[in-house]
Design brief:
By secondary structure, the protein is of the alpha+beta class. It has helices at 87-99, 102-109, 113-130, 173-180, 185-190, 200-209, 213-216, 221-245, 255-259, 267-277, 282-294, 302-317, 322-334, 341-344, 352-363, 371-382, and strands at 3-7, 12-16, 24-26, 33-39, 43-50, 53-59, 62-66, 70-73, 138-145, 152-158, 163-169, 193-196, 217-219. The chain folds into three domains: 1-78, no CATH class; 138-218 and 349-363, Ribonuclease H-like superfamily/Ribonuclease H (Nucleotidyltransferase, domain 5, 2-Layer Sandwich), CATH 3.30.420; 221-344. It is built from 16 helices and 13 strands. The structure holds zinc ion. Zinc ion (ZN) binds at residues 27, 29-30, 32, 66, 68-69.
Length: 394
């Protein structure tokens, strides 16, 4: 260290670094000891505060001259190449980012939004580079809406480890295709099951990249429930109108009763609902169809499960309820990758903790100007990455 200046008026401590008598440096590329070539002009790094004072390091980084790699800036012990912050400062910023929104952390540390995001972005790049090629046995392919409208992200989750492996823009086949390129051959072969929505672009991508995909794709249970639930709702809406026109209010205001879990209702609500569902209404029949279809997931063995489905499907197709007939046809077409659930027992709900975190990221995402920012934040908070700067992990 050469000298320290305290600037009371601006509340800053300036520390000027000097490397003394050293005239030889390891090449940053190959580590060979080389002669010093020259110095870069003075640069500044924000360091951890000294008491309440912002602390700035100043130095002229030496450049080495390697016979093989030429003139290079030497590796600095306190900062990563290109950063305006010391590694210790970045480590602190990363801890704050984990615990609060980006704008709050920036405000607290006296950084601009862009500086804060730069620290996050570099942390993610490091973490992704450090990630080991571990086996991934059960993965979930999911989509997330970003802002309003048809603005989506594609996510690949590691269901066993509860972390996000991959995020891409849109929800096209090409969005998911990018994921497979990040895997080693062994990793691709280690994939035993893929939970996903019944979404053709994703199906096409899995089929093109995962060997024996037909046995491994499991359409998500909650996605199936959602399709059935929407069909029940269509029946209810239509019937409510018809009844109302005849002056009958039986169904008015019951929308949520049909969507709720009957077992979780208060006893009084349940009694009321039971009267409704035994009323001979079309909506009650549609609801019973939905409940019976979901009983598929209670089976342990395939044979009785198939039998149950055939029986259910005949009932649904004869129900004269158009939305239920449509959903029964769809489930029939997709059935071979619904019943795979019995073998693999996976759903995207295993990524529930990931989803909760992503909700939080979205909630604190004010100031995210584009999707790429949002993608960095998802990797940062949900990627299970080693984000620490520099040598702290070596
Ligand atoms: Zn070299």
């Amino acid at each position: 260290m050469e000298r320290v200046e305290l600037k009371l008026e601006s509340g800053e401590v300036h520390v000027y670094l000097d490397h003394g008598e050293v005239r030889q440096w390891p090449c940053p590329e190959c580590g060979k000891t080389c002669r010093q070539y020259d110095h870069q002009p003075e640069r500044r790094w924000r360091h951890l505060d000294t008491c309440q004072y912002q602390t700035i390091l100043h130095a002229e980084p030496p450049r080495s001259e390697c016979g093989e790699h030429g003139v290079r800036v030497v590796k600095l012990s306190w900062a990563e190449p290109g950063s305006h912050f010391t590694a210790l400062f970045e480590a602190l910023a990363i801890e704050w980012l984990k615990a609060s929104s980006q704008s709050a952390a920036a405000k607290l540390l006296g950084l601009s939004w862009d500086e804060m995001h730069g620290i996050m972005e570099r942390a993610v790049e490091r973490g992704l580079k450090r990630r080991q090629a571990e086996p991934v046995q059960q993965i979930g392919v999911d989509e997330k809406a970003f802002r309003k409208g048809h603005n989506y992200l594609t996510l690949v989750n590691d269901l066993s480890r509860g972390r996000v492996l991959y995020v891409a823009e849109e929800r096209k086949q090409s969005s998911l295709d990018g994921f497979w390129a990040t895997l080693t051959r062994e990793q691709s072969q280690s994939i035993a099951a893929v939970a996903m929505d019944m979404w053709d672009p994703f199906i096409a991508s899995v089929e093109a990249h995962v060997p024996d995909a037909a046995k491994k794709i499991v359409f998500d249970k909650f996605h199936v429930a959602q399709h059935l639930g929407e069909a029940v709702d269509q029946v209810r809406r239509k019937e409510t109108k018809t009844l109302k026109a005849a002056g009958d209010d039986t169904l008015t205001g019951t929308r949520y009763d049909w969507l709720r879990n009957r077992a979780a209702m208060e006893p009084r609500d349940r009694r009321e609902f039971d009267t409704l569902r035994h009323s001979g209404l079309k909506t009650a029949r549609a609801w019973a169809l939905k409940e019976t279809a979901m009983a598929l997931y209670d089976y342990v063995y395939e044979r009785p499960c198939r039998k149950h489905f055939r029986w259910w499907q005949n009932w649904a197709l004869r129900s004269r309820l158009k939305p239920m007939i449509a959903v029964a046809r769809m489930l029939k077409r997709r059935f071979e990758n619904i019943i795979t659930y019995l073998r693999h027992r996976i759903t995207n709900a295993a990524s529930e903790s990931i989803n909760a975190k992503i909700q939080w990221v979205k909630y604190t995402a004010r100031g995210f100007r584009n999707k790429q920012n949002f993608i960095h934040a998802i990797y940062f908070h949900c990627g299970g990455l080693d984000l620490a700067p520099l040598s702290s992990t070596k």
